[in-house]
Amino acid sequence: MSETEVKEVVDLEEQKNAANKDAEAPEATHLKNDAEDLGAPVVKPTDANPDATKKVSKASDQVNKDANDGSLPNDQKPSAKAEEVETEEDVMSEASIDSIDLTDDVKALVSSDADLSEEFKDKAATIFEAAVKTRIKEQTKILEAQFDEKLVSETETVKEAMVEKVDSYLNYVVEEWMKENELAVERGIRTEIAEDFITGLKGLFKEHYIDVPEEKYNVLDDLTSQVKDLESKLNEQIEKNVNLSKDASELQRASLVVSVSED
Description:
With 263 residues, this protein is mostly helical. Helix content is 79%, strand content 0%. Helix 4 (103-110) packs across helix 5 (118-180). Residues 24-36, 40-50, 52-60 and 67-78 have low confidence and may be disordered.
């Protein structure tokens, strides 16, 4: 860029600043929705904008007041906290970018030209620094958006893979447990059927007025009692087997989670 072009850019910036200062009505803002105009832009890191500071302070006080009063619905409070964290991160990122000082670099670029005045060099440095910082912020937002998109995609991929592995593992555990306890399950079913049969047989005798000697009733009662005792012991053994299988399943599940995490 030639000296004449640089001077034209500087003069154009001065005319814009003068027009902004002399305007009686506030400049129309391009902000949308509920965004609030915080005043003129700050082009130097050392510059301050009192109006913007006051507005930001008022907005922060209002947010804190609403949070303390519990005016937000319960289902929106987590999202509000998340937005507040994101806003703080954006402010910190912009503050770190604004703290970049390129004055020495710009002076090094124009120091070889003795025809340029110090005032011109300062203005050129200000414009160059503002343009560089704006470009950095734009690229930072693009990179952050790409990172967030990739993070969501990778998270979903890992989640789907883990769900598939856990499902297949649980199916395997159920199949193995059925194989190991097939005999116990079969005996339990048979015992339940025999008990129901004996109970139904006693009821059938009573309904049809069939006299059964008292000692025979005692035999049936004894058989029923024995069946119940055997069933109780069988249930205890099955419960022990289930607990052992459960412990083994928990160990295998923990091992699977560790292997998935390492992948």
